[in-house]
Write a structure and sequence with these properties.
By secondary structure, the protein is α+β, with helices and mostly antiparallel strands. It has 9 helices and 15 strands. Helices cover 28% and strands 20% of the residues.
Length: 342
Amino acid sequence: MRTTLPVHPIDLAPFRTGGPAERRAVAQLLDEACRDTGFLVVTGHGVPQPTCDAALDAFGAFFDRPDHEKRSVVVEDPSANRGYSALGEEGLSYSRGEESPRDLFEAFNVGSEDTTGEYYERHRSFYAPNTWPPEPVHLRAAWREYDRAVTEVADTILQAMAIALDLPEQWFVERCEHAIITTRAINYERRADTPDPVEGQMRMGAHTDYGILTVLLADDVPGLQVFRDGVWHAVSTPRGAFVCNLGDMLARWTNDRWISTLHRVVPPPADSSGPVRRRSIARFLDCPPDLVVETIPSCVDGEHPARYEPVNAGEWLRAKVLGSRALQLNESDDTSISGGRS
């Protein structure tokens, strides 16, 4: 059974331009969404549509290049989380310790480029250099403009999250000063010479995101599904909006007050007559690698004791990345995916 999930709409405009009352109201709506599904549709974000379209089109043009060109920007070290990943080379379910058929997507990963200084050198394995293809020539510029705009969106959401948890407004932003940020462009495309999926094979296997916050831009093509109350629900990705969801680290940080929800991307039906190519750009915000994440005090009380031991964010992320990219079963994941608490 597959139904449509009523994802919470969050209009950021009142938070961006309003006073304390308007900002508190948006924070309350955000808190409700994070407790309920961990997924929200964000509007009023201030990112121009041409900036979004240019990024999607530029990455799409890269995926249209010949295979030998794309493979020229493969980064052999899977822990670097950079470069091109060809169709069928990853399995997202491995990040949760579950084996499955390999996923039906190709991807291109880039990370922050402003990583000079002593801190980044000490943790260089988490801030690997980007590898850019020669074509399309405008890809890097399109990504840079998009990245600058979406960074502001993410910071705005982090500020609203802090208010919702009765923390100083910059609490999350300050702790994310050296955040690991990865932009993953993904192409789901069934070409004429592609064999049918095997039983249980997904475009992207069931997984939870690893860190704090994911900001997703995508074609509004069916496929994204969220698991809730024992049922897979379809989630739309409307033009002009971002679909945002929480990651495992934020669930731990908030003692499961907020939830990191299992999701996947399913293949189109064999007889599908609509568009079946789905392009997406996911911006993943992960904690700095040396940050030790402990439960936020405002998320603990007599009825809700701390559920998790402190964890090193870098070690956590490395185990997750190697699970999906190196097809190594991750046995260290103790985060609940059964839902949050009230």
